[in-house]
Amino acid sequence: MAYPYQPYSPAYPSGAGYAPGYYPAQTQPVPDQLAQLRQNQMAQQPMQMPPAMQPQNNMIWVQGEAGAKAYLVANGNTVPLWDSEQPYVYIKTVDAAGVPSMRKLRTVDETDLPPQTAAVPPPPIDLSGYVTREELDAILSERLKRPAPKTSGKQKEEADNG
Predict the structure, then answer these.
(1) What are the Cα distances from residue 145, in Å, to 138, 151, 153, 160?
(2) What is the pLDDT of residues 59-74, one digit of tens each?
(3) Are strands 88-94 and 77-83 parallel, antiparallel or unpaired?
(4) Burial of residue 96 (number of CB atoms within 10 Å: 0-12, 13-18, 19+)
(5) For residue 158, what are the CA distances in angstroms to 15, 128, 148, 150?
(6) Whole-model pTM?
(7) Are the C-beta atoms of residues 94 and 77 closer than 8 Å to each other?
(8) Closest CA to 100 of 77, 67, 125
(9) Which of 6, 94, 100, 125 could cross-link to 73 by cystine, CB 3.0-4.6 Å?
(10) Which letter does DSSP use for residue 20 in this model?
C-alpha cells in the first residue's frame, strides 16, 4: 500500500524528504449519518434465515388451445400444457424434424362424479332352455339312426383299443 506524500505533516519536519521506518497511523474515515444509521440497523436486526425452498411447480399453464399451439417446444421433446380456462391438458410433441403434434385431453375431477353403487350380482341363469348331455345324445342318435352310447368316453376308448 502506498502512502501519499504529505509535505506539511509532523513526520516530515522540513517539509521534504523521506523518513525511514515511519508509517502514518491508519484511521478509518468517520462515517456520515446515513452510514451510521445503516450500521445501527444491521446491529439491531437478527440474522434472518433464508426463505425455505418452495416446491417447484412444473405445470406449464397456457390460455386455451391457441396458447398451447403457440407454445414453442424444442425438437424431440414432449411437454404437457395445462389450460387455465378449460379443464384440458394438451400434450404437445415435436419430432426430431421439428414437426409439432398435439393431443387434447379432458381432465375430470373424481369428486364431481356420482358415487358408484356396490356391484350387483348378475341375475340367475334360466337353464330350462338348455338340454342335458343325455337328452342331446338321444336326439342325435334318433336323427342319425344309431343307438345311443351307454358307456362313457373312457370306457368306449378302452373297448376300441383292446
Answers:
(1) 10, 18, 20, 21
(2) 899 999 999 999 999 9
(3) antiparallel
(4) exposed
(5) 140, 35, 18, 14
(6) 0.38
(7) yes
(8) 77
(9) 94
(10) T
Cell numbers linked to 155: 370306457
CA dihedral 128, 130, 132, 138 (to 10 degrees): 110
Q: CA–CA distance from 77 to each of 84, 102, 105, 114 (Å)?
A: 22, 12, 18, 38
Q: Tell me what the mean pLDDT of segment 113-119 comes to.
A: 71
In contact, 106 and 88? CB cutoff 8 Å: yes
Q: Please, which residues bridge with residue 83 across strands?
A: 62
> Edge-to-edge strand order for the sheet containing 88-94?
60-62, 77-83, 88-94, 100-106
